[in-house]
Amino acid sequence: MISREFSPRSVPARRFAALAATAAVLMLAVFSGCSKNSSSEVSASPADAVVARVNGVDIREGDLALAEEDLGAEMANAPPEAKRDHLISYLADIIMVTQAADKKNIADNPDFKRRLAFLRNKLLMGFELQEEAKAAVSDEAMHQTYEEAVQSMRGQEEVHARHILVESEDEAKAVLEQLKAGSDFAALAKEKSKDPGGSDGGDLGYFTKDQMVPEFAEVAFKMYPGQLSNPVKTQFGWHIIKIEDKRTKQAPEFNRVKDQIETFLTRKAQTEFISKLRKSAKIERLDKAGEQSKN
């Protein structure tokens, strides 16, 4: 449950990766009409072999990688050879349609130019944020973040609980009576609970106090293993809680949360970079000029 410690609100890193791929493929399409030899204006490395040629325009291994990122989950489960065929076909279609558009001078359309400029800016934004992330994510920074998180959770108590969630207090009281009479908690949760976790016997696993709504947590953390609660009301309904175990929270090993820490530092660096730019930028809302002059 360490994900909460390494999950700040920020700009998702995946969004920029997907954005970069999409924009890059679109740029590839634009440039394919400008060159007879390559689908990209970027100089190819020796390892970036030509895999196909469409009306004189080369498709390279690097182009396939961009196309695969652009298509995302659509290609996830495809067999390698089928995936490769589909990616080449996808890029070939882009090149052919782009060449047809060039013959009509569609690139001169003001709306196209505006959208192209917008995509260029977003692509540059993604690359710049990736650079900020690279500078921030070091082995030293990752270990320091890990140690700070471990210190913050040291001595923190967590409980392992089950619950049964019902609509009314009367239903909760009836459930409690059945449990006191010897009914199995997990079986009754599967039968009575309206919570999706009811199918798992109402098992909530281990959690810390701040991970539950206050009304639920206040009761749960005062109980002892094996104890049943009286009906507890929260925004979700009425609960009967059973405590399975209590323990001091154990910090996970560094390698188990390394990826989470990297994501945390990436998003933190990107968010702080954008915040810094906002503070120094002059942003004028011309659509609210009248309101600003009054303030």
How would you portray this structure in words?
The protein has 295 residues and is α+β, with helices and mostly antiparallel strands. It folds into 3 domains: 9-124, no CATH class; 139-145 and 253-294; 156-248, Roll (Chitinase A, domain 3). The chain is 53% helix and 14% strand. The chain has 10 helices and 6 strands, in the order αββααααβααβαββαα. The chain has helices at 13-32, 61-71, 80-103, 110-136, 139-153, 169-180, 185-192, 214-220, 254-280, 289-294, and strands at residues 50-54, 57-60, 157-166, 203-208, 232-234, 237-248. Strands 4-3-6-5 form a 4-stranded antiparallel beta sheet, with helices on both faces. α1 (13-32) packs across α3, α2 (61-71) packs across α3 and α4 crosses α9. The longest helix has 27 residues, at 110-136. The chain is elongated and about 80 Å long. The model is unreliable at 1-16 and 31-36 (pLDDT under 50).
Biggest pleated sheet: 4 strands, antiparallel
Distance between the termini: 47 Å
Flag low-confidence runs: 1-16, 31-36
Strand order across the biggest sheet? 4-3-6-5
Q: Tally of extended strands?
A: 6
- Report the mean per-residue pLDDT as an integer: 86
Count every helix, treating DSSP H or I runs of 4 or more residues as helices: 10
Rounded radius of gyration (Å): 28 Å
Class inferred from helices and paired strands? alpha+beta
- Element string (H = helix, E = strand): HEEHHHHEHHEHEEHH
Number of domains: 3
